[in-house]
Specification:
Layout lengths: L1 E7 L5 E7 L1 H11 L3 H18 L8 E7 L6 E7 L4 E5 L17 H5 L4 E7 L6 E6 L6 H10 L5 E9 L5 E11 L5 H13 L3 H7 L2 H8 L6 E8 L7 H9 L3 H10 L3 E4 L6 E4 L1 H4 L7
Helix pairs in contact: 1-2
Length: 291
């Protein structure tokens, strides 16, 4: 079961959100038939989106993280609602890369690439969504997301995201954390957090062996944290036949005209969950472009 746990320090100088998401990422792996490096890339992005989405105050708001690098995996997309439930995909799920020679870890940075952008879009139900982006640094997701939060949101933050893939390519552990400093946090709190994060055990090992509470204890060691909230989250697709049809109706008129001329049944697959929707020839015959 996936869960987000929030905690704050005794003096409210820092707050943290931690997610444990093995089941959520395993569900994504199964849906998209991901190879290990794709599982890690999408899994990290799903965890980051879930953490940020759950922070949204508006009930019907959504948050989207889109990573577009120059690596072979193409785009990585994750969408969260305000409850932290997520869905996502990668452009090329079959991509597989050898582990990094220097440390034997999955080469997520190589799959995503180091040239490109990380974009976060928050749809709060207003006329236009709030969109911010930052250039990719490493392609490892956590470092790039932390840079976005610092540069675009102007919030001093640290982020850790990890996915541990088992020998059978299933997900053994997955999750992450985002810790944010209050504007009035003194230097000694900043220094303590930096040292704690530098000295902490490997994130996925903590999650696998000790659970998310241990992540809080290690990141906020010495700062007397206390848990304020727990939220269950899941991989959850919002697709319906009506929503898929709306997406089809946004295609250029020449594409719809070609489908009508074929006079055949049309199958449309949801990019988030791979569910297939079938439209009969008489339905297709009525398709016209809508602005």
């Amino acid at each position: 079961m996936a869960e987000i746990i929030r905690a704050v320090t005794k003096d409210d100088m820092a707050k943290i959100s931690v997610i444990t998401a093995r089941d959520m990422v395993e569900r994504a792996r199964q849906i998209h038939s991901l190879r290990p490096v794709g599982t890690a890339a999408l899994g990290r992005t799903l965890c980051g989106a879930s953490l940020l989405g759950e922070m949204l105050k508006e009930e019907d708001a959504t948050l989207t993280i889109r990573i577009r690098g120059n690596g072979p995996i193409g785009s990585v997309v994750a969408v969260s609602d305000s409850a932290g439930n997520v869905r996502g995909y990668v452009s090329n799920p079959a991509v597989d890369l050898p582990v990094r020679q220097r440390d034997g870890k999955l080469d997520v940075g190589g799959a995503i690439g180091t040239e490109g952008t990380l974009t976060v879009s928050r749809d709060l139900g207003l006329r236009e969504p709030y969109i911010g982006s930052t250039a990719l640094r490493t392609g490892e997701v956590a470092e790039d997301l932390a840079a976005y939060l610092t540069e675009s949101d102007q919030v001093g933050s640290a982020c850790g995201l990890g996915v541990l893939v088992d020998v059978d390519e299933s997900v053994k552990a997955a999750g992450g954390f985002i810790v944010q400093l209050m504007p009035f946090a003194p230097d000694e709190v900043v220094s303590a957090l930096e040292e704690n994060i530098f000295m902490m055990d490997q994130l996925t090992t903590i999650l696998d062996e000790d659970g998310p509470e241990a992540v809080i204890d290690q990141v906020l060691r010495g700062l007397e944290p206390h848990i304020t909230q727990r939220t269950h989250v899941a991989y959850e697709c919002k697709c319906t036949r009506e929503r898929v049809l709306q997406a089809v109706m946004s295609l250029p008129e020449e594409d719809l005209a070609e489908l009508r001329a074929d006079g055949k049944e049309v199958e449309v697959s949801c990019q988030f969950c791979d569910k297939v929707y079938t439209f009969a020839p008489d339905e297709v015959a009525a398709w016209t472009h809508r602005e």
